[in-house]
Amino acid sequence: MERIIATYLIETPHDVEKAATVLAGEQSSGTFVAVPGETDELKTRFAARVEEIELLGDVSEPSMPGDDLGFSTYHRAKVKVSWSLENFGFNIPALVSTVQGNLYELRQFTGLKLDDLELPVSFSEHFEGPVFGMRGTKDLAGVGPERPMIGTIIKPSVGLTPEYTADLVKKLVEAGIDFIKDDELMTSTANSTFEVRLNKIMKVINAHADKTGKKVMYAFNITGDLDTMKANYEKVVKAGGTCAMVSINSVGWAGVKEVCSWGKLSIHGHRNGWGMINRHPLLGINFPAYNKLWRMAGVDQMHVNGIQNKFWESDDSVVRSIKSCHTPFLNNEAVLPVVSSGQWGEQAFETWRRTKTTDLLYMAGGGIMAHPSGPAGGVKALHQAWQAAVDGLTLEQAEKEFKEFGESVAKFG
Amino acid sequence: MERIIATYLIETPHDVEKAATVLAGEQSSGTFVAVPGETDELKTRFAARVEEIELLGDVSEPSMPGDDLGFSTYHRAKVKVSWSLENFGFNIPALVSTVQGNLYELRQFTGLKLDDLELPVSFSEHFEGPVFGMRGTKDLAGVGPERPMIGTIIKPSVGLTPEYTADLVKKLVEAGIDFIKDDELMTSTANSTFEVRLNKIMKVINAHADKTGKKVMYAFNITGDLDTMKANYEKVVKAGGTCAMVSINSVGWAGVKEVCSWGKLSIHGHRNGWGMINRHPLLGINFPAYNKLWRMAGVDQMHVNGIQNKFWESDDSVVRSIKSCHTPFLNNEAVLPVVSSGQWGEQAFETWRRTKTTDLLYMAGGGIMAHPSGPAGGVKALHQAWQAAVDGLTLEQAEKEFKEFGESVAKFG
Lengths: 413, 413
Description:
Two copies of one chain form a homodimer. The first copy, chain A, is α/β, with parallel strands linked by helices. Chain A has helices spanning 16-26, 40-46, 92-99, 133-140, 162-174, 194-212, 226-238, 248-251, 253-261, 274-278, 287-297, 315-326, 346-355, 366-369, 374-390, 395-401, 403-412; strands at 3-12, 49-59, 74-84, 111-118, 149-153, 179-181, 217-221, 243-247, 266-270, 283-285, 301-303, 336-339, 361-363.
């Protein structure tokens, strides 16, 4: 029978092998005393199994504050545990409750992080994965493999009127941008209701498409309960839009899967709240596991933060995340990595150096909006930065060669 | 205009007031540079506002490992921040993205935990809250205010056949239990599909109800994607069931709200995964805020762990959670606190002493199933323990007075 394999980073003051056995036991038997009915046959068929233990060294302090149990040594390890597919079938929320669930609560661990997840190939028959994915989304936006999609976020996040927003969108589409999005804080506000904003923006985008053949992708933030998302999704489709954005952690897996199943728009997955479940090095979930769960829901575009971002996340984690989006997974389309946070073009060089891919949605907020030559200059500067990076120029060379990128360096560098 | 108020516990090496201002700014303007369009009028209307700062003392090490920024002092504080309702209206996922969202990612904080949430009274007009809630659920189970509902979990979690499970249910209902639930690991397994298990169990429960007038509540675990949950929910209704269980973190807010809106079953909210977002003292979310979000979704029963539980959570946190479920909130019905984890009757005394409430669902797994006189003895022992606790007896007195409880003490004490 096929098995699901979960890889964890753990920390425990106890014997690592025994702690791993507790982990496996909690997630397949789960009470503090042996009970009748727990036969050997049942255990063989349904018990979780510790597949592999790799010791990662010891530390003298537990990584979870407040959990100092008075031991002098805490062992770290990478542990693989497997479950039979028979335990839950093709039910992702049930799988999540199994591979995460109560594990974080076990006193035996002073650290536990789900790092990665391997699903058997039979999942392919039950989950389509992203309808558009990386390639389909770039196709929709009319951007080939030779360069990233260049995008921006409407700022300030909230407060602008639909008219002001549409004017900004007009400037941006005329400047040659590929993608624009609502901020994750912006759904429907008192002075900019979803429908009014949508229609004003799509009027600009459709007019530009009629004139030039290029339909700029706009991610309208439909985040809400299911009724709200359904209604707003249909409005986007009707207005000729190509994309909707969802705050995936706030909506949750079942809601996001439902949205993705509607199949007419590329779904922009915003992972705000990520820090809550990832920032601690030994608590929560790492991107490879997280990303696979959302690929199973059908998300087409996934936020990965950016190199030298304004947040706490390390470049190593960002690079791992980008690669994770591109790594083949079952029969899924690759997911389009959404690179953002404090980006203005400088980081194109390091991003290219470390990932050697242009299959990205590369976004700058202030980096475009606050460019000395206005948004048009900001968009141009990002195109220049990426062209220079791919052509092997240094930042210094690019700064001299390209006027708008040079202005970016002068202002943001 | 009405405002939403969020209370945070924070830790920062910077000036607390400045850090709080960054927090408010990130969640209402949100880029690293001033941009055009951000007028004073717009700011006044839509900017988040720091309402209150209470200093909680300094520490010399950051509570987030790996984030030692080289400072010698880190300040802790409780901070209240407010947003105008105009920013998102009555949209809970958008509100979550605002009050949590990217905040956990800010380098300015080495700790950030959402502690509580205050919503204006107008939310009452847009959210019904739990259809059954605490009182409605106890009514459904035929249990009055004078004692807690006594419940148990089918163990082992996975692997039992429907026949074996139904036999166990028969023993339990005959022993006078009020409530039984699937384990959160149990949805539909190879040898116990949802429908077969449901029908075998409901046959037992319905027969018992026909004979005695008491319909035992069984929480069938319908956790899954929306189609699965809808199909299984309808099956439970059709079979005459009164309750469905959902792993709320795995399903997510929008999916759970949808399930609650169907309105025919009391929804048992299992919060597995809670440790991931709560275990760190300064990362994630505390129960008062968490619980309110799920009350808005309409969850009727909410897990709160138990006194002297087998997990890491402190008794103080459990007591705060129980009180939180009972605290009036908007026009919501109170939520029934589900007390569980390592419970066998001993803890009834301390639970009563600290909460003085019997409006609980008090659950024991092994404490019932592995009782020396079998499940019937286990149920009896729990009734005895609660009766003794409410009557003011000590554990020692109860141990002598009640045979079955005495046996519990001998085995588990």
